[in-house]
Write a structure and sequence with these properties.
The complex is a heterodimer of chains A (111) and B (118). Chain A has 111 residues and is mainly beta. Chain A has no helices and 9 strands. The mean pLDDT of chain A is 96. In chain A, strand 5 (63-68) and strand 6 (71-76) form a beta hairpin. In chain B, 0% of the residues lie in helices and 54% in strands. In chain B, the strands form 2 sheets. In chain B, strands 2, 4, 5, 6, 9, 10 and 11 form a 7-stranded mixed sheet that branches. A 4-stranded antiparallel sheet of chain B has the order 1-3-8-7, with no helix packed on it. The chains are: A mainly beta (111), B mainly beta (118). The A-B interface holds A 2, 32-33, 35, 37, 39, 44-47, 50-51, 56, 86, 88, 90, 92, 96-105 and B 35, 37, 44-47, 49-50, 59-62, 95, 97, 100-101, 103-106, 108-111.
């Protein structure tokens, strides 16, 4: 059971816009930044969004992040076949001595 | 070019010890924390802990505290993940990541597959 809750799956057709949600609590998303990762099995994860809505250099502006209260979301516009991957949200959690928590991951299928 | 290069795949027996490594290059090693992330077969990503290579201060996920040790050697720009007594449930892919703003993994190693089986 992950601390952050994501839908297990999402899908869309090429060119569509899809969103993936991430729900947490006051001790994690409610108090800290949210990061999003793309993971194609067999490869290293890739940082897509950090500090809620910032994109590292090289990440297309088709990817965007937002946060409100204890929830966050990742939006992918102009969906492409190469976007098919697992997507994870993550945030620092202030409980105990503090540690990073991940969502369970959302498998995105491009139909 | 920033690179994190991890040590190769390992096959171990339950109860054995193991240390895997993550060598950073192309940046100032002591300016960025390093984290370790586990992915068990067919499962999601789990954050294990992180280390500040400048002073070896560490944070651990409570689920991993006491079972693994994270360390770093500035002189050879390498971080380590160590087990004293492996279990079959430690079978997983392990990734290291350089942390941007101390929490966001902006560069990742290629992963080290650890298999623990009798």
């Amino acid at each position: 059971q992950s601390v952050l809750t994501q839908p297990p799956s999402a899908s869309g057709t090429p060119g569509q816009r899809v969103t993936i949600s991430c729900s947490g609590s006051r001790s994690n998303i409610g108090s800290n930044f949210v990061n999003w990762y793309q993971h194609v099995p067999g490869t290293a994860p890739r940082l897509l969004i950090y500090n809620n809505n910032r994109r590292p250099s090289g990440v297309p502006d088709r990817f965007s992040g937002s946060k409100s209260g204890t929830s966050a979301s990742l939006a992918i516009s102009g969906l492409q076949s190469e976007d098919e991957a697992d997507y994870y949200c993550a945030a620092w959690d202030d409980s105990l001595n503090g540690y990073e928590v991940f969502g369970g991951g959302t498998k995105l299928t491009v139909l | 070019e920033v690179q994190l290069v991890q040590s190769g795949a390992e096959v171990k027996k339950p109860g054995e010890s193991l240390r895997i490594s993550c060598k950073g290059s192309g940046y100032s090693f002591t300016n960025y924390w390093i984290s370790w992330v586990r992915q068990m077969p067919g499962k999601g990503l789990e954050w294990m802990g992180r280390i500040d290579p400048s002073d070896s201060y560490t944070n651990y996920n409570p689920s991993f505290q006491g079972h693994v040790t994270i360390s770093a050697d500035q002189s050879i720009t390498t971080a380590y993940l160590q087990w004293n007594s492996l279990k079959a449930s430690d079978t997983a892919m392990y990734y290291c990541a350089r942390l941007l703003d101390t929490v966001a993994g902006d560069y990742w190693g290629q992963g080290t597959l650890v298999t623990v089986s009798s």
